[in-house]
């Protein structure tokens, strides 16, 4: 801090308020550096903000600025690069800078109180989780659940959050020698060695490690082609140059297994995980260690893209196509796109990896803006891609939702001692409860959606707004008592399967069965250990998990993605089915995938069966170019919700009137959202499409000040730049 001279100084502070401006405050004490966190009065409140600029006079600002109350030095001043990244995001997504900075910071630094970093505590971990699990009987599932977590280091506080008794058990296991303890930064897990790379992998490694400066790569590698192995060996070389690496992954992929794989490869290298499984303090501690340059690897989800990294040397975005990289509320940013901007800003290479790249990245690679690297074979010698078979279900009698061929294949796999996955992306017992007499269906009173029957809990639940009610005993329209569940959900499958597979251990893994912390990891550990024969899983299970014994996958109800109003639905379905199929036969055992479909003639399935994403991506990109859909042009979507649809539509009409028509700018009419009503409000949207992102930004820059000044009572509106759901 610089001692203040005679001049009256002012600070322009970014505050987390919904106004697109900075706020002037007088400096009466020491002058904070730009990027400092300060405490200021705001109306009747005291809130914290970040200094973005220092000035000698505040002439442009109305009134007499109030004084800054305190400089909070629990946070070192944010580096200029981070502030500039936030400025870019604020501008590109048209969101207030103060709110962007607030979103980029760990929660503790958004509050007006001072954060006290806790003294480093010992962490506990198992060098060999499998060995630990062998010590714990299967009739102690809670203990096994905790044990499965110890693949990654846990503090006593984190353990207590897993289970009330977890800390007690861990002390015992530690005494018995099944666990190790160390200061977090000094964790030395059982090291895993580099694998000898195959020719393709070596070539990719050479390309990645040879890159200097801003160099975007699209790593297109089939599932199991050894992308992660290449990341690890690339990271090793970046670390050897004394630099930090940022690795972004979809939330659902950050399992203890993956974190453990990273820690094992780099024992003793300080690593910061940043994801929603951590509490606010842990997040802040990890984030600070990255900012100070201590953590060399940051492994995190979407939000980690903002982490200040003074020695950033490379960015990796795994599963870059994953929709979870796009935040769908508040600051609607794409962490993948922000990561690319950041790599350019920091002049470092960035790798976007996927077996099914987004069409956006595909287009960038085709246009040579990204360099495409390919891994076309499975890395484990002898492992081949699973065979895919379509099972047409039109006019075919199904047995509890399963095709007889699927049943036969399941029996055969189980007889060989292998595991089976039934992929059914629909939790609950059945998605519809219907009256057999008059056709009435149970619907949510707050949403344009049906209620899902959860038979175990004897409840009807809305999966959109969380509303739930007891099961209706009779049809409210005709009084008929015979209400029928229609369609398959995971619970129903779980209930009917034992009839066909007596004595087999069946495990359901979906959001309901894993809602408590640690349950997912425990379930995964059960699958890994081989105690489970049949897994029934939703999307949660599609990604990232590597089950050695799993050879056979049956996909039910795949068709929902075809014939959708969303032009990205097929792209998503291809990615999802590829990932699901990728679960089968990852090692020596050959895999087989059965897809039950009512549309086996659909061209989509022909391309899926061809097992080659490239022709699908080429065709899709061509279609987008013909039909002027993104990435062939740039979209922005205004959304509005209100008690009545009319109000939302009229607000959007007013917004539309603020946008000056231009040639090549497509200004649609406001329309009702596909799902009109959600959580009690009615929703509408207005799409604008421009020829390029530059043109789109110019249009928005010009129109938004006028739009912001509109009086739109009862209406909440938002802007989504590059929307991925329309
Ligand atoms: P991806 O990230 O592309 O899905 P992974 O890196 O997870 O692929 O590799 C898939 C499997 O292949 C893992 O079990 C991994 O240990 C193994 N593997 C990766 N590279 C090699 C290699 N060069 N030789 C042998 N096995 C490998
Ligand atoms: Zn009825
Ligand atoms: Zn609802």
TrEMBL record:
Its EC number is 5.6.2.4. Pfam families: DEAD, Helicase_C, PriA_3primeBD, PriA_C, Zn_ribbon_PriA. Binds 2 zinc ions per subunit. It catalyses: Couples ATP hydrolysis with the unwinding of duplex DNA by translocating in the 3'-5' direction; ATP + H2O = ADP + phosphate + H(+). Its cofactor is Zn(2+). InterPro entries: DEAD/DEAH_box_helicase_dom (IPR011545), Helicase_ATP-bd (IPR014001), Helicase_C-like (IPR001650), P-loop_NTPase (IPR027417), PriA (IPR005259), PriA_3primeBD (IPR041222), PriA_3primeBD_sf (IPR042115), PriA_C (IPR041236). GO terms for cellular component: primosome complex. Zn(2+) 2 binds at residues 444, 447, 462, 465. Zn(2+) 1 binds at residues 435, 438, 475, 478. GO terms for molecular function: 3'-5' DNA helicase activity; ATP binding; DNA binding; hydrolase activity; zinc ion binding. Residues 208-375 form the Helicase ATP-binding domain. GO terms for biological process: DNA recombination; DNA replication initiation; DNA replication, synthesis of primer; double-strand break repair. CDD domains: DEXHc_priA, SF2_C_priA. SUPFAM superfamilies: P-loop containing nucleoside triphosphate hydrolases (SSF52540). Keywords: ATP-binding, DNA replication, DNA-binding, Helicase, Hydrolase, Isomerase, Metal-binding, Nucleotide-binding, Primosome, Zinc. Initiates the restart of stalled replication forks, which reloads the replicative helicase on sites other than the origin of replication. Recognizes and binds to abandoned replication forks and remodels them to uncover a helicase loading site. Promotes assembly of the primosome at these replication forks. Belongs to the helicase family. PriA subfamily. This is Replication restart protein PriA. It comes from Deefgea piscis. The gene is priA.
């Amino acid at each position: 801090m610089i001692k203040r001279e005679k001049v009256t100084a002012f600070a322009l502070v970014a505050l987390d308020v919904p106004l697109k401006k900075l706020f002037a405050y007088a400096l009466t004490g020491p002058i904070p550096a730009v990027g400092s966190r300060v405490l200021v009065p705001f109306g009747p409140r005291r809130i914290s903000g970040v200094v973005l600029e220092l000035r000698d006079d505040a002439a442009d600002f109305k009134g007499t600025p109030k004084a800054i109350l305190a400089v909070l030095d629990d946070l070192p001043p944010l580096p200029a690069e981070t502030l500039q990244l936030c400025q870019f995001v604020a501008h590109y997504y048209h969101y207030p800078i103060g709110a962007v900075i607030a979103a980029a910071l760990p929660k503790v630094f958004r509050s007006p109180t001072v954060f006290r970093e806790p003294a480093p505590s010992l962490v506990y971990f198992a060098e060999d989780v499998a060995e630990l699990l062998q010590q714990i009987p299967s009739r102690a599932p809670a203990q096994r659940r905790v044990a499965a977590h110890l693949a990654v280091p846990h503090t006593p506080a984190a353990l207590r959050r897993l289970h009330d008794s977890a800390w007690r058990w861990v002390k015992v296991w530690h005494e018995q020698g099944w666990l190790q303890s160390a200061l977090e930064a000094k964790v030395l897990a059982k090291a895993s060695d580099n694998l000898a790379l195959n020719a393709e992998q070596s070539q990719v490694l050479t390309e990645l490690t040879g890159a200097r400066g801003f160099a975007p790569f699209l790593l297109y590698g089939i599932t199991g082609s050894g992308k992660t192995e290449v990341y690890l060996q690339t990271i090793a070389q970046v670390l050897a140059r004394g630099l930090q690496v940022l690795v972004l992954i979809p939330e659902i992929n950050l399992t203890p297994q993956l974190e453990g794989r990273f820690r094992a490869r780099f024992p003793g290298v300080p690593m910061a995980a940043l994801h929603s499984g951590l509490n606010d303090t842990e997040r802040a501690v990890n984030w600070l260690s990255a900012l100070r340059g201590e953590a060399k690897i940051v492994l995190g989800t979407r939000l980690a893209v903002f982490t200040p990294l003074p020695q950033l040397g490379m960015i990796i975005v795994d599963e870059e196509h994953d929709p979870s990289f796009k935040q769908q509320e508040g600051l609607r940013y794409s962490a993948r796109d922000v990561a690319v901007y950041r790599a350019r800003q920091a002049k470092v290479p960035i790798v976007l990896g996927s077996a099914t790249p987004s069409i956006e990245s595909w287009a960038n690679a085709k246009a040579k803006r990204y360099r495409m690297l390919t891994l076309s074979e499975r890395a484990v010698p002898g492992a081949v891609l699973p065979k895919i078979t379509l099972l047409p279900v039109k006019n075919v009698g199904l047995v509890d939702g399963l095709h007889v061929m699927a049943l036969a294949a399941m029996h055969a796999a189980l007889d060989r001692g292998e595991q089976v996955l039934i992929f059914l992306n629909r939790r609950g017992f059945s998605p519809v409860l219907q009256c057999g007499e008059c056709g009435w269906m149970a619907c949510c009173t707050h949403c344009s959606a049906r209620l899902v029957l959860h038979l175990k809990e004897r409840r009807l639940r809305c999966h959109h707004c969380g509303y739930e009610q007891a099961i209706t005993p009779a049809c409210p329209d005709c009084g008929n008592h015979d209400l029928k569940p229609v369609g398959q959900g995971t619970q129903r499958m779980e209930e009917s399967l034992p009839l066909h597979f007596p004595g087999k251990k069946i495990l359901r893994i979906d959001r309901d069965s894993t809602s408590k912390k640690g349950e997912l990891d425990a379930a995964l550990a059960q699958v890994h250990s081989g105690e489970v024969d049949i897994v029934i899983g939703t999307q949660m299970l599609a990604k990232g998990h590597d089950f050695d014994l799993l050879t056979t996958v049956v996909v039910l109800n795949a068709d929902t993605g075809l014939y959708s109003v969303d032009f990205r639905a097929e792209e998503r379905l291809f990615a999802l089915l590829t990932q699901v199929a990728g679960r089968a036969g990852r090692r020596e055992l050959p895999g087989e995938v059965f897809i039950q479909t009512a549309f086996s003639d659909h061209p989509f399935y022909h391309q899926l069966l061809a097992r080659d994403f490239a022709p699908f991506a080429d065709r899709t990109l061509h279609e987008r170019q013909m039909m002027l859909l993104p990435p062939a042009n740039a979209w922005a979507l205004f959304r509005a919700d209100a008690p009545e649809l009319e109000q939302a539509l009229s607000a959007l009409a007013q917004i539309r009137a603020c946008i000056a028509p231009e040639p090549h700018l497509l200004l649609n009419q406001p329309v009702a959202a596909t799902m009109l009503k959600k959580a009690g409000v009615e929703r509408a949207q207005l799409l604008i499409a421009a020829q390029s992102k530059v043109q789109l930004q110019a249009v928005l820059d010009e129109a938004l000040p006028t739009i912001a000044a509109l009086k739109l009572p009862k209406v909440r509106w938002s802007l989504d730049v590059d929307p991925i759901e329309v």
